[in-house]
Amino acid sequence: MKKSLLFIAVALLLPSVTFAGGTSQYLAQQVLNYWFTAPASPAGKPATVYVALCTNTVTSTTACTEPSGNGYARVAVTANTTNWVVTANSIANGAVITAPTATGSWGTITYFQIYDASTAGNPLWYGALTSSQTISSGATPSFAISSLSVQLN
User: Fold this and answer.
1) What is the pLDDT of residue 134?
2) Count of C-beta atoms within a 10 Å radius of residue 142
3) Which of 2, 7, 118, 124 is the most exposed, having the fewest neighbouring CB atoms within 10 Å of its CB?
4) How many structural domains are present in the chain?
5) Can you list the pairs that 29-32 forms with residues at least 24 positions away whose Cβ atoms lie under 8 Å?
6) How far is CA 8 from the centre of its chain?
7) Where are the alpha helices (DSSP H) in 1-127?
C-alpha cells in the first residue's frame, strides 16, 4: 500500500512531496484537524506552528536552512479553525501568513517548512516553492489566504 502526502501552495508557493503508505479520506481529515486546528494535547501537538522559509532543498531527512539575520524569523500561526481551514483531506491557511520585512538579503527561498517551535524544534511538514523567490531588503514575503495548503492522501 502507498501513502502520499501532497503539499500544495498556490500563488507564491506550490510544493509537492510524496511518502510511502495509504490512508482514507476520513483519517486524512482527522490527522489534519489534529495538527492544525485542535487545542494542544498531551500527545505533544503544538498549539502554534511556525512557518519557516528555506534556502535549500528540504527532504524528510534534510531540514530547512533558514536565512540568518536581516529581520528573518519564522512566522507563528496558532492552530485553530480560523487560521487553518479543513476541506475533505486538505487544509489551507485561513488567514494571510506574513513574514517580517527583510532588512537585508535573505537569499533565494526555494522551500518552506512548518515547525513546532519558533527556533530549533521539530520539522513537521515541508514543500517546494512553485518558483524560487529572491528576498531582498524591503521585501515582505507572505502567503495569501488559501495559498499554503497541505493535502494528506
Assistant:
1) 96
2) 14
3) 2
4) 1
5) 29/86, 29/88, 29/89, 31/152, 32/84, 32/86, 32/89, 32/90, 32/91, 32/150, 32/152
6) 10
7) 25-36
C-alpha cell at 58: 528540504
Q: How many whole angstroms separate alpha carbon 91 and alpha carbon 66?
A: 24
Query: How far separated are the first and last CA of the chain, in Å rounded?
Result: 12
Q: In the chain, which stretches have pLDDT less than 70?
A: 1-27, 40-44, 153
pTM of structure: 0.77
Burial class (CB in 10 A: 0-12, 13-18, 19+), 20: exposed
Q: Are 147 and 11 in contact (CB under 8 A)?
A: yes
Beta carbons within 10 angstroms of residue 148's beta carbon:
29
- HEC profile of 65-96: CCCCCCCCCCEEEECCCCCEEEECCEEEECCC
Dist CA 10 CA 22 (whole Å):
25
Q: What's the CA gap between 120 and 140, in Å, rounded? A: 23
Q: What letter would DSSP give residue 137?
A: T
pLDDT at residue 101, as a whole number:
98
